[in-house]
Write a structure and sequence with these properties.
4-stranded parallel β-sheet, globular, 4 strands, alpha/beta, Rossmann fold
Length: 120
Amino acid sequence: MMRATGHLLVAHGSPDARWRAPFEELARRLAQRDPKCPVALAYLERCAPDVPTVLADLYRRGCRHIRVSPLFLSHGRHLAHDLPELLAAAKVRHPDLSITCLGALGERGDFLSALLAVLA
């Protein structure tokens, strides 16, 4: 079995397809950059797929390391509690799974610079 690295993008979630469209486009474009790295998008609430489902799918696809990128501007309840609990549960189900979770996008200087350029 391939021991690949997968990339999980996590967004809040909404039942509105228009709200989800930019996140789905981001996942699609990121997947095109490196076809060897599976990219998946999950939502924390209000729509599917959820984080446990996508983590299990990446694991079934051979990913034993998963990089998690929360698509949130700031660190709130979801990033402080909800997402860490879901990731910890995945590690219990799959002890050989390694997960690296990045911080909120708004905590990154390069992201803030890019956002400033768009807004200026």
